[in-house]
Amino acid sequence: MKSYITRTFLGTFLLLLSISLSAQNLTKHQFMVKGNCGMCKERIENTAKKAGAKSAVYSIDSQMLSLETKGNISADQILSKVAEAGHDNEKFKADDDVYKNLPACCHYERASQSSVSEMPHSDHKKSENEFFVKGNCGSCKARIEKAAQDAGADSAEWNAEKQSVTLHFDSSKTSADKILKKIAEVGHDNEMYKTTDEVYKKLPGCCLYDRDIAFGETNPKVHFEETANNGNHFNHNDSEDHTANSGKEKSIEQVNITGSKAATSINKKDAGLVFNIDKKELLKAACCNLSESFETNATVDVSFSNAVTGTKQLKMLGLDQKYTSLTKELLPEIRGLASAYGLNFIPGRWIESIQLTKGGSTVTNGYESITGQINTELIKHSEKSETSLNLFADFNGRAEANITHVEPINDHWTQTFLLHGNGTFGDTDMNNDSFLDRPKGTQLNTAYLLNFNDLERSGFGSHFGINFIKDERTAGQIGFDKKISQSQQNLYGVGIDISRFQVWNKTGYVFKGKPYQSLGWMNQYTYHQQDSFFGMRNYSGNQHTYYSNLIFESIIGNTNHKYKAGASFLYDGYDETYLTNRFKRTETVPGIFAEYTLTGLKYTLVAGARADFHNLAGTQFTPRLNFKYDLTSQTILRLSAGRGFRTANIFAENQQYFASNRNIQIAQNNGSIYGLKPEIAWNYGASLQQEFKVFGRKSTVVADFFRTDFQDQVVVDLDRSPQQLTFYNLDGKSFANSFQTQWDFTPLKNFEVRLAYKYYDVQADYMEGRRQVPFMAKHRGFVNLAYSTNKNAKEGFWSFDTTLNLVGKQRLPITSTNPAEFQIPAYSESYAVLNAQISRNFNKKIRAYLGGENLTSYSQKNAIVDFRNPFGNYFDGGMVYAPIMKANFYVGFDVTF
User: Fold this and answer.
1) Most CB contacts within 10 A, which of 308, 432, 515, 589?
2) Which residues form the HMA domain (predicted)?
3) How far apart are CA 648 and CA 576, in angstroms?
4) Could you tell me which of 147, 169, 150, 174 has the C-alpha nearest to residue 158?
5) Which of the listed residues 218, 250, 268 is the one where a domain comes to its end?
6) Is residue 289 one of the residues assigned to a domain?
7) Which residues are within 8 A (CB) of 205 and not within 5 positions of it... i.e. 6 or more apart?
C-alpha cells in the first residue's frame, strides 16, 4: 500500500511538473490586426491556430489578436499567415487582390500608407515589452513612466515619436495589463485601456493629445439602443466613422465605439439619407420641447405659433407634419388626435438623440411615412447613477423644470425617471390686439423607463416604458375666465385640456452563435383624451391605439445578404365630437412585410415591401427602395423611391383653423373616413454627399432633390371663401418638389458653420384650379454659427450659437370677398428671424445659458383678422405665416449630480 501511494504521489507530481513546464513554455502575444465582422473574427482565429498558435482570440472592438504560442512557432509566422488570409496587421500587409476577394462585409478600412510599418498602432513595434500609449509632451512622458513604475515596472521609457512605452518588469510581481491599466487611469489611452473623458479633460492643456477612438480600445463603451434605420433591433451604436460588426458583442447591424463626433452627422454607411442629431445639438437653442429641437437644423421647417392656440407644426420636403412619420423609441407617437399638440409632449431635456430620415424610410416601421421619418430616443443610458436638473424661464412669464435620473441597477438592468413641468403665467400681448400672443397654462409630464440588456450571455434585451401627461391651456382675449362658460362672458376664449397615457415594451433576442440573426417584438398602448372649445365651438375626442410589430432578421449565405421579415398590427379607436356632430370609427390594420439588404464593396441596396389589410381603406401595397453608391470614399450618391398611405384626421390635424368663424364643410366622396378616401403618395429622391478639406479640416456638402406625387389626397381648401373651410378628395394633381443644398465646415478650431438654401415648389389642383399651396415659401436660407472656447480648459468654457432663418414670400389664402379692412395680401413679405444663445460650462456638472429668440423683432401685422369682433363673420386667427411675438429673452441652468 505504501509503495502504491508513493508511486501515485510521484506520478501526480511528475504530471503537474509537466503541465507547469508546458505552461511556462507558452508565450503570450498581442498584435493589431484589421477586421470588420464576425466572419473576420472566425477567419483570423482559425488561420492563427492552423499556423501553430495554441490559442487565438480576436477582438473586433480593439482590433487586437491575443495569441499563445509554444516552442519554435513565432508570432511573425502566424501574422504572415493572417495577412495571406486577407487581414492587414502590424507586421504584414495583405495582398490587394486577396483583400478585394474577401466578402464585402469583411472590407475593413485600410490604412492609406503603402507600408504596414506606417499603419496606426504598428509604429515599428520591436519587442513584446513595447506598447502603444498616447501622449503629447514632456509632462506626458513623466506621468506615463511614473504610473508604470507605480504599477510595478522596474523601468519604463515612453517615446513621443512612436507613441509607445517600453516596459521592463518582473512577471511574478506585476503584468503589462496591470501597468497599462494604471497608465490609463492617469489619463493616457493605450492599446489595452482607454482613459475616462473626465480624467482626460483634467490633464494640462499641453498634454491634451489627439484622441483616436479606434485606438486600442479593448473595452469600449457601447449602448443597447434602437436606431431609426435598424428597425427594432438591439444595436450598439453611436459614431459613424469607426464601426465594426462583432460576433462577440452579438450586434445585428453595427458596433460603433463612442468618441468625439459632430452634433449632427450623416452615417456614410446608411443607404438612406439619415441625419443623426445628438443631444449636443439640442443644447444650442432653448429646446423646451420637440417642436424647438430643429431650430438649428436646416432640413426641418418649423411653423410659427398659431395666434390663438399657440401650436407649432413641422414641415419637411415642403409638406405638412402629418406626412412625416413621427416616432418615439421607434413606436408611433405624434399621430391621430395628438397631431396638433404632440410636439409639446416630448421635452427637449428628455431627448438622447434624434434620427431624421429624408424620403422613404424602412417598411419595418410602418406605412404612414411619405416625406420621411423623425425618431426620438429618450435618455436611458448611463454607466453610473446620474441626476440632472434643468431650470428655464423667459422674460414673458414662461417657466419650466426638468429632472432626469438614470440609474444602473446592476450589470444588466438600468432604470430612468423623467419628470417635466412647465407653466405660462404672463399675459403677453406685444401687438396690442387684446389677444394673448401665446396660451397660458400648465403641463405635467412624467415617464419611467426600465431597460434590460443581457445580449452577451443570454442574447436577450428588453425595454419597458410608461408615460403620463396632463396638459391644460387657456388662450383668447386677455381677461377671459376659463372657469366661466363662454356663453356667459363677452370675451373670446379658448380652452384645451389633454390627458395622455402610454405604456410600451420592446423585447429582442439574438440567437446564440448567430450574431446576424435576431427576433424583436414591440408593443404599445396609447390613450389620448382632448376636451376643448374655441369661442362658441366645441371639439372633443378620445383615441385608443394598440400597436404591435414583430421582426425577424437573418442572412442568406453571408452578411452581404441580409433580410428582415415580420408582421404588424395597428388598432385605432376614434370618438370625436365637433359642435353637435359625432364622428366615431375603428381602424384595424394587420400587415406583413419583408426587406432585403444587399451590401457590396461600394454599394448598398435596401428593397422592401409591405401589404396592409385596412378594414376601411382596403388592401394597401407599400414598396420602398433605397440605394447608396460610393463614387469615391468621399463622394456618396443616394437614390430612393417609395409609396406611403395614411388616413386623414381632418379635425385633429387642422385645429389651428378652429379659432375662426369659418364653417367646416366636407365634400364626401364615398370614402369610409369622414366620407373621404385615404391619402396615397409616391416619393422619389436623390442626394449627393461630398466630403473635402477646407483649411485642413473636414467639410461636407449635401445636395438633395425630392419629389412627392399624390395619387389621392384630402385637400384642405381655405380659398373657396374666407368664411369656409372645405375638405375634399383630390381631383387632379398635387405635388411637392424640394431642393436643398447644405454645407457644413469648420474654418477655425471650435468654430462650426452650417449654410443651407432650400427651394420648394408645392402645388395642388383645387376646385377653382391649380395653385401654390398656402403658407409655403418657395425660397429659404439658413445660417448657423457655433463657436466654443477651449472645451478642455479646467476652468470651463463658453459656447456661442446663432441661427439666422431667411424666409421668402408665401402665398396666403384668398380673402378678396371680405370687406377691404379685413382682407390680407395675396403674398406675405419676406423676413428674417435671428436666434442666439450664450452658454457657460463651469465644469462638467454645471451649465448656465442666456438666449434670445427673434432678435430682429419682426412680427406679423394683423395676425388675427377682425380681432375687435371675435364673434363676427370675418374673425380668423388661423392666418399666421410669421412670428407674432417680438424679441423674447430667456435664461436657463443645468446641473448634474
Assistant:
1) 308
2) 126-191
3) 14
4) 147
5) 218
6) no
7) 790, 792, 793
Is the distance from CB of 892 to CB of 391 less than 8 angstroms?
yes
Q: Which three cell numbers stand for residue 840?
A: 457657460
pLDDT for the residue numbered 263: 79
Q: How far apart are CA 304 and CA 312, in angstroms?
A: 6
Contact 68, 28 (CB under 8 A): yes
Per-position DSSP letters for 717-778, written without gaps between them: E-SS-TTEEEEEE--S-EEEEEEEEEEEEEEETTEEEEEEEEEEEEEEEETTEEEEPSS--S
Decide if 804 is inside a domain: yes
Residue 300 lies in a domain: no
Q: In which element (H, E) is residue 780 found?
A: strand 779-788
CB–CB of 704/273 below 8 Å? yes
Q: Which residues, listed in sequence order, are joined to residue 325 by a DSSP beta bridge?
A: 373
Contacts with 319 (C-beta within 8 Å, 6 or more apart), sequence order: 370, 371, 708, 736, 762
Residue that wins the pLDDT comparison between 774 and 8: 774
Write out the residue range of the structural domain in which residue 159 sits.
130-218
CA distance 569 to 593: 11
Q: What is the mean pLDDT of residues 39-68?
A: 85
Query: Are 491 and 483 spatial neighbours (Cβ–Cβ below 8 Å)?
Result: no
Alpha helices in 220-291 (DSSP H): 279-282
Answer for the pair 549, 522: CB distance below 8 angstroms, yes or no: yes
Q: What is the pLDDT of residues 524-550, one digit of tens each?
A: 999 999 999 999 999 999 999 999 999
| pLDDT tens column, 625-639 | 999 999 988 899 999
Q: Where in 842-887 does DSSP place strands (E)?
A: 846-853
pLDDT of residue 214: 32
Domain holding 149: CATH number? 3.30.70.100
pLDDT-derived band at 436, boundaries 50, 70, 90: very high
Average pLDDT over the chain reads 86
Q: What whole-number distance in Å separates Cα of residue 193 and Cα of residue 133?
A: 9
Does 735 fall in a domain? yes
* pLDDT exceeds 60 at position 258: no
CATH at 354: 2.40.170.20
- pLDDT at residue 117, as a whole number: 40
Note whether 35 and 21 are within 8 A (CB).
Answer: no
Looking at this protein, which amino acid is placed at residue 833? V
Report residue 173 as a C-alpha cell.
Answer: 510581481
Q: How far is 244 from 41, CA to CA, in rounded Å?
A: 11
Write out the three cell numbers for 77: 509566422
Backbone dihedral angles phi then psi of residue 431, each to the nearest 5 degrees: -100, 5
Same domain, 332 and 208: no
Report CA-CA distances (Å) from 84 to 87, 93, 108, 546, 740.
7, 8, 15, 55, 47
Q: What is the pTM of this model?
A: 0.75
Residues 614, 777: Cα–Cα separation, whole Å = 36
Q: Which range has the top average pLDDT, 236-240, 305-309, 816-820?
A: 816-820
Of the residues 218, 238, 268, the one at which a domain ends: 218
CB contact at 8 A, 624 and 361: yes
Q: How many domains does the chain have?
A: 2
Distance CA 156, CA 503 (A): 57
Q: Residue 700: pLDDT above 80?
A: yes
pLDDT at 424 over 60: yes
Higher per-residue pLDDT: 520 or 105: 520
